[in-house]
Specification:
The protein is an alpha+beta fold and 121 residues long. The chain is built from one helix and ten strands. The protein has one helix at 2-30, and strands spanning 33-42, 48-50, 55-60, 64-65, 69-70, 76-82, 85-92, 102-108, 112-114, 118-119. Mean pLDDT is 84; it is low at 21-29.
Length: 121
């Protein structure tokens, strides 16, 4: 008899666990912010072109440094799943680890924080 009760409750328990997990994911996603922006280079003639492949990270003392993201062919970058707060946006224009990034203080808000275009060397 107990075996039948467990089999009857088992699908219900699975659905309840799945629903609880889905709600937890939605709550986490709802509190995540995205930082996005564009990197440009200026040519000698004054024309701007996308700064393709330049690394961007975000840093604050509480979370440390994020994994790098790279500007795409249009110079666009995005950093996902951040909590609202104060950070430093770091633009790494050289692959040499001895070269420090250019740092910009930013305030992240939900759901999106759009950074004005940044011109890199």
């Amino acid at each position: 008899m107990k075996r039948r009760v467990l089999l009857i409750l088992s699908p219900f328990m699975r659905r309840a666990a799945f629903l609880a997990f889905a709600l937890l994911l939605l709550a986490a996603a709802a509190s995540a912010a995205t930082v996005r922006g564009r990197l440009d280079r200026v040519l000698p003639n004054g024309a701007k072109i996308p700064a393709t492949g330049v690394a961007v990270t975000i840093y604050n003392q509480a979370i440390g440094r994020s994994s790098p993201t790279y500007a795409d062919r249009d110079g666009m970058y995005s950093l996902f799943n951040l909590r609202a707060g104060s950070y430093y946006l770091e633009v790494w224009t050289s692959p040499d680890p001895r070269v420090r990034p250019t740092v910009y203080p930013i305030t992240v808000v939900e759901p999106y924080t759009d950074i004005p275009p940044i011109v890199v060397p």
